[in-house]
Amino acid sequence: MKLYFSPGACSLAPHIVASEAGVPIELERVDLKSKTIRKSGADFSQISATAMVPVLELDDGDILTEVAAVVLYVADQNPGSKLAPPCGSRERYHVQKWLNFIATEIHKMFTPLFKPDTPEAYKAIAKDNLAKAFTLLDQRLADRPYLMGAQFTAADAYLFTVVSWSRLQQIELDRWPHLKACWERIRARPKVEDAMKAEGLIKVAA
To answer: What is the spatial order of strands in the sheet that 55-57 belongs to?
Structure first.
């Protein structure tokens, strides 16, 4: 499998899942500004019409996009990792619920904040919506280390990735201590650090 990624973008979530699950993937870095594949200079839109990451290219050439779908597919390659509950189980639908919540209530609210042409008034609305989502998550995490309880799942990998963008928008997590503690807990996981090092987000000691 080949994962098209951009450092620190939402593609970090499936990268973390692959690292945690021990699933081998080939990494292909994408320049999101020029919409080109860094190594070859090829037009990334020829791989995916949206020219957005993540894109997971399977061994048979099939293409998967959208974070929620990609992280579940990668997690399912190693069921023993328990990063995704078994298909048909009630827990599976709860993980999907959180993946959808993160995609629609957090990821999509961050998107306009990174666009220079977004009106300041709308940015304020987006930040207010993020605060509401963070409050709900803070309540959820008040009595558990991860979204599903003791078990780290693909949903936590996605949550960590998008919450990491808070510092880029001067959003202090101190207002949400349980969410902040969860973020720090995930950040300290060795396999998460491995993925971040591979993307150049953490300097590797000489």
So the answer is: 36-37, 26-31, 2-5, 55-57, 63-65
Q: What is the pLDDT of residues 35-64, one digit of tens each?
A: 999 999 999 999 999 999 999 999 999 999
Q: What is the residue whose two structure tokens read 């201590």? A: 177
Contact 54, 10 (CB under 8 A): yes
- Within 59-176, residue ranges assigned H as helices are 67-76, 90-101, 108-110, 120-140, 154-163
Return all residues near 50 (Cβ < 8 A) that are at least 6 apart. Answer: 65
Given a contact cutoff of 8 angstroms between Cβ atoms, the answer to whether 98 and 151 are in contact is: no
Provide the pairing of β-strand 63-65 with 55-57: antiparallel
Q: Quick one: 30 exposed, middle or buried, by C-beta within 10 A (0-12, 13-18, 19+)?
A: buried
Structural domains of the chain, ranges and CATH numbers in brackets = 2-81+192-198 (3.40.30.10), 90-189 (1.20.1050.10)
Task: Say if residues 182 and 150 touch (Cβ distance below 8 Å).
Answer: no
Give the tens place of pLDDT for each residue, 60-111: 999 999 999 999 999 999 999 999 999 999 999 999 999 999 999 999 999 9
Distance of alpha carbon 182 from alpha carbon 162, whole angstroms:
13
